[in-house]
Amino acid sequence: MKSDIEIAREAKMLPISEIAKNLGLSEDDIEQYGRYKAKLSEDLLKKLSHNKNGKLILVTAINPTPAGEGKTTTTIGIGQAFAKLGKKAVIALREPSLGPCFGVKGGAAGGGMSQVVPMDELNLHFTGDFHAITSANNLCAAMLDNHIHQGNALRIDTRQIVIKRCLDLNDRALRNVVIGLGEKSDGFVREDHFTITVASEVMAIFCLAEDMADLKRRLEKMTVAYDLDGKSVTAKDIGAVGAMAALLKDAIRPNLIQTLENTPAIVHGGPFANIAHGCNSVRATKAALKLADYCITEAGFGADLGAEKFFDIKCRQSGLKPDAVVLVATIRALKYNGGVKKEELSKEDLGALKKGSENLAAHIENLKKFGVPVHVALNAFVTDTQAETQYIEDLCKSLGCSMSQSRAWELGGEGAVPAAKALIDILENEKSGFTMLYEDELDLISKIEKVAVQIYGADGAVFSKKALTKIKRYEAEGYSKLPVCIAKTQYSFSDDPSLLGRPKGFVINVKDVYVSSGAGFVVVLTGDIMTMPGLPKVPAANSIDVDENGMITGLF
């Protein structure tokens, strides 16, 4: 069996200028980054605002397991399937983070016969967007420390510095550090922290900004510290906004690449869904909607994280309204949720499937709360039995949603044609009544509790004294109308990753909160969530190499 990277290398890619031409774009509408990558021009993005929107399809999934779900693979497969049916479709995805790529999860290019290419370049540096975001964030942090060193005219309280430096790699040793050691000229000694780039507020701002003017407005609002009177100090106050925006000038333009079947894909931005809002950029999604009849996009991890944040944060801020949702699941993953060990998932076990399918049912019920039609794409494995597949089909029917088997990994677009046909039927015959879970006017505690009870199935939320104090402070500062971005484990509806399926009788433990005033949401930290991951015992980096011809090996 060929690896993903071997399949990707055999792809018959078209020059990116041809992909653009098939979308009705000229060479002036793109800026090429080599032969197979390009950025959309600012002039094009302005022109597209006059185009009619296509249909917006969100792809999400059940809670991830070691058995695999294939959400990105399914997203790409559905986009390719629309093209096979003669429909004009564009896929909108996030860029991969180097952290998971060298850690344990892998990249974000899909798999098998449903990948975006060039896969190795996408997973390693791509067009440099993440490096620009890292540099902009760290420039702001450096300018803050320099302001303190040069006399601290803003009277910044060095005990209340909230901006963290970032790096797009997993490095647990950087979670808590001490800076400024050495001579007086080396700055003030203080505790500092690092977060992974995809969890930084600059990444969130980057992905939610409508254009450069909006990006700068958001950067201006970004709280970096508090002064001795407890008042916020922003990136604007320390004079960092212009330089940060200059670093992001090219990065803010969405990237155009293609799939193995030459379907256009706009890949841009990449916040994690367990510790950030988990969606690609607003600019990318809106461009895809203007360029095609169908935009297929995805949100990270399970629907309790990515989809909820897509609806309650991204759609709230951008005005986007999804027309349909695809929920990806596998029989193997559902049996894992039902208590079957990973090495025994190939055996038929209807009892475990029934128990584990409570996770699928909960996600279907949750998605319906947002008023959007739901289609379940069952990512097929050769070990799936007819009885198991029939059980899932009957369950979906009883919950009022359609289901199709997807063989996108094996067959590419052809394997996802049933899903594409089902979606066309939904889009032609069902109207989305999209609504968000909560209103802006609710206070922050009520918003957190609503997500915990309505989406996670918790009995409620328990707040630490620290969290309650900060919530009170943020509401006094005027942030009570912001949406909440709950950072939680992706493996469970609860904040305990060991509670699989559809747990009951638990509470969500809120240990801390902080405001992302530029991004426009309040981050809520629950359980043992970390904003700077660590590497596993045997990181994927151990297997990655490059030969004398520049050929990368061991990536996937």
Short description:
The chain has 556 residues and is α/β, with parallel strands linked by helices.
What does this structure look like?
- There is one protein chain.
- The chain is built from 19 helices and 25 strands.
- By secondary structure, the chain is an alpha/beta fold.
- The strands form 6 sheets. Strands 1, 2, 3, 4, 5, 6, 14, 15, 16, 17, 18 and 19 form a 12-stranded mixed β-sheet that branches. A 4-stranded mixed β-sheet has the order 20-22-23-21.
- β22 and β23 form a beta hairpin.
- α4 crosses α17 and α9 crosses α10.
Task: Classify the secondary structure makeup into a structural class.
Answer: alpha/beta
Helix content estimate: 25-40%
Query: What is the oligomer described by this structure?
Result: single chain
Number of DSSP helical runs: 19
Low-confidence stretches: none
- Rounded to an integer in angstroms, the radius of gyration calculated over CA atoms is 23 Å
Mean pLDDT: 95
Number of strands: 25
Large-scale geometry: globular
Strand content: 15-25%
Secondary structure elements and their pairing?
Elements: H1 4-9, H2 16-22, E1 30-32, E2 38-40, H3 42-48, E3 55-61, H4 71-84, E4 89-93, H5 98-102, E5 110-111, E6 114-117, H6 119-123, H7 129-149, E7 156-161, E8 165-167, E9 177-179, E10 190-192, E11 194-196, H8 201-208, H9 212-221, E12 223-227, E13 232-234, H10 241-247, E14 255-259, E15 264-267, H11 282-291, E16 294-298, H12 303-318, E17 324-329, H13 331-337, H14 350-368, E18 374-379, H15 386-398, E19 402-406, H16 408-411, H17 417-429, H18 444-454, E20 461-463, H19 465-476, E21 484-487, E22 508-516, E23 521-526, E24 545-546, E25 552-553
Helix pairs in contact: 4-17, 7-8, 7-10, 9-10, 13-14, 14-15
